[in-house]
Specification:
The chain contains 5 helices and 38 strands. The protein is mostly beta strands. The chain has a domain at about 70-440: Pectate Lyase C-like (3 Solenoid), CATH 2.160.20. Strand 3, helix 2 (about 95-100) and strand 4 (about 110-115) form a beta-alpha-beta unit.
């Protein structure tokens, strides 16, 4: 029997005694049956809710066009712009030509041939899909690797106009790539210009980006409601790989968003954005990161994502929201909740079940900038901020100030409890009495296997060489054709959590047998390998 840690008490082995009557045992079984019934009901409701979103058995969005939809095929290897593009046997050659055939208010589909490469930008016209369930789809056909839009120094996907209304659009299964900025590519141009991978600065509602790669741009994705009158709503990123953004002349983000209501991230990978150590001047700095979500967004929903090797923080959640079951590894800080003291105070955030490992320092030149935080909270207040059941472990920072949970002076009334903090130089920094910061499990012993990391997962579960790089490469190589749940944040987090269970060393029943009748009492004595916090003994 194993129980999760619930305490920051001193090390020790203490017995805990609870008395349970036979009638009480029946009550427990009845309660369990009720809870099971509730869980089944919730699951059924969830399945009903998602049945209209066209998800297949592996969680990928499927699209069934209406009878009148136009399907447009484009192939760089076999196409010709003199073709009509309405059959895989007569594809167009250029993306630009295919885009001209999309009709506003339709659920037309523009499909690029898998395995092909284009050296052009995708400049979207002013079109909108029929509805959220019947969007315009820009995706692929055939088998093989994602189609590559190798835009070099130009934007990969460009949507920029204050008059556009680009609603109900899905971009699925494409690879946006700045080949002239990739130092590992024969196309690489040292000191060459750069651009943004996906720019969306137009009115838009119900936008989906799924199963895409975006790599080597200055900013890989920028969705910015900067012009008056713009409105961006219900934008979802699912199972995308957003990696290797860098700049030699200014800021660089994996993704930057501003002014979006209904912003959702699910099962994406953000890796090594904001810097590139092999390129002079592309240093890691405090101004660059994997994920930058400005305070002008609505509350974000961020679940089951992976953030690794960021220039600075893995993420800045400046507008609050739900941050659930994500994995942050070797970022200078896991993430910020809120940010600048001048920003509006956030009052709602649900931060649970995240795993933050090996936060390090900003790898600036000529020497690292000390960091090493787990979760940093700024400009946040009230009981609507819940930071619970997270694991923050194995600090890799050289800084004496590395802190697992850090609250600035503007953070008050926050509940930060039932978190596990292990092998971190400083556990919690908070103004005394300002926040609820106990109980938390801080540097306890007696865990089953607290030294589990992504590296040990790669070696023991995946059979790899035991490196973060190998795990990220495996996870990033996934697509709709080879999805593996073992390469997700949820799988790694469950593996790490299992190592942080406390072992029950001994269970003794008294009397040992012969009294299993109504009204009789059996006393169970449990001896743990570590002190735990429990409530008063209760007879059920």
């Amino acid at each position: 029997m194993r129980l999760p840690a619930q305490s920051d008490e001193s090390v020790g082995r203490r017995p805990y005694t609870a008395a349970i009557s036979d009638d009480g045992m029946r009550s427990i079984l009845s309660l369990a049956a009720i809870l099971l019934s509730v869980a089944i009901s919730v699951l059924a409701q969830t399945q009903m809710a998602t049945s209209g979103t066209n998800l297949d058995s592996n969680g990928w969005t499927t699209f069934t066009p209406s009878a009148g939809a136009r399907i447009i095929y484009v192939s760089s290897s076999a196409g010709n712009n003199r073709n009509n593009g309405l059959s895989p046997k007569s594809p167009l050659a250029s993306i630009a030509k295919g885009l001209t055939l999309l009709r506003n208010g339709s659920d037309d589909q523009l499909l690029l041939k898998a395995g092909d490469t284009w050296h052009e930008s995708m400049v979207l016209p002013d079109v909108a899909g029929t509805s959220a369930s019947h969007p315009i789809l820009i995706s692929s056909y055939g088998t093989g690797a994602r189609p590559v839009i190798d835009s070099g120094s130009k934007a990969g996907l460009d949507v920029y106009s204050p008059t556009f209304h680009t609603d109900n659009i899905a971009v699925v299964g494409l690879n946006f790539y700045a080949g002239t900025r990739d130092p590992n590519s024969p196309e690489y141009v040292p000191g060459g210009a750069g651009n943004v991978g996906i720019t969306w600065a137009a009115n838009g509602t119900n936008l989906l980006f799924e199963n895409c790669e975006v790599q080597y741009y200055i900013d890989n994705i920028s969705m910015d409601e900067t012009n008056p009158g713009f409105s961006l709503n219900n934008v979802t990123f699912r199972r995308d790989v957003i990696a290797n953004a860098y700049s030699t002349v200014g800021g660089s983000q994996g993704i930057f968003t501003s002014g979006i209501n209904g912003l959702v991230f699910e099962e994406n990978i953000f890796d090594h954005n904001g810097w590139n150590a092999s390129i002079p001047g592309a240093n890691a700095t405090v101004f660059n990161r994997n994920i930058y979500l400005r305070y002008t967004n609505g509350p974000v929903y961020f679940q089951d994502n992976i953030s690794t090797n960021s220039s600075s923080e893995g993420a800045q959640f400046r507008s609050g929201g739900t941050v659930l079951d994500n994995l942050f590894v070797k970022d200078s800080s896991g993430f910020d909740l809120g940010h600048l003291q001048g920003d509006p105070i956030i009052t709602t955030a649900n931060v649970q079940q995240n795993v933050i490992l090996e936060s390090n320092d900003i790898q600036d030149v000529p020497s690292p900038d000390p960091r090493g935080y787990g979760i940093v909270v700024y400009s946040a207040s009230g009981p609507g901020i819940q930071i619970t059941n997270n694991i923050i472990a194995h600090s890799a920072s050289t800084s004496n100030g590395a802190t697992a949970l850090n609250f600035d002076t503007t953070a008050t009334g926050i509940n930060a409890t039932n978190n596990i903090i292990y092998q971190w130089k400083n556990a919690i920094s908070s103004t005394p009495g300002a926040n609820i910061i106990s109980p938390n499990a801080i540097n306890l012993t007696g865990y089953l296997d607290p030294n589990r990391t992504v590296e040990t997962y790669d070696a023991s579960v995946l059979g790899g060489p035991g490196t973060l790089a190998d795990f990220v490469a495996r996870a990033s190589s996934q697509s709709a054709s080879n999805w593996n749940p073992a390469l997700t944040a949820d799988a790694v987090n469950n593996y790490v959590r299992a190592g942080f269970t406390l072992v029950v060393m001994q269970v003794v029943a008294s009397p040992a047998s012969g009294v299993e009748f109504p009204g009789n009492t059996i006393t169970l004595t449990l001896t743990f390998g570590q002190a735990v916090a429990v409530g008063a003994s209760t007879v059920l």
